[in-house]
């Protein structure tokens, strides 16, 4: 293998162990395998948002990221692809997940290949990936893989049906799509300082001061 890529996994599971982390790991493993089949090595870094919850809250209140949160953001912005997985609460992504997105620079994910996944108790919430998560990442100008993966409690160990396939099949299809996007990703065209001050910022006069 002569090529290598960096994949960052963002898991917003609250319990330990969690089905959210389990799905995140399955998606990461499948993506690594797909890349390896094409001669591309992948380094995977997993970020558990539950471990950063206090730092994320403090960042929202103060505008400054603690070292551990800053390191996680830098890992994400310097990656070649990312996997985001959240539990679904009240028909949408979790508050912790959205809070992490809110502390990112608006351009931090621009051009980044992304695979979206979610977990929930019932199949009824599966469309949250399309009406809540996909629009969010489209707004952030990420390159979202066509297939999203939702895992309800009943999906674990199920083979699915003829139209949707089982969870392993959906994971493999989504991983193949992300791997294809990651292979073509040129990190040099999008890596930026996630903590750079906006153009025109003056510590004395504020934004746009001359």
Automatic annotation (TrEMBL):
Keywords: Flavoprotein, FMN, Oxidoreductase. It comes from the Bacteria. Its EC number is 1.5.1.-. InterPro entries: CE1759_FMN_reduct (IPR023932), Flavoprotein-like_sf (IPR029039), FMN_Rdtase-like_dom (IPR005025), NAD(P)H-dep_FMN_reductase (IPR051814). GO terms for molecular function: oxidoreductase activity. It is an enzyme of class 1 (oxidoreductase). This is FMN reductase.
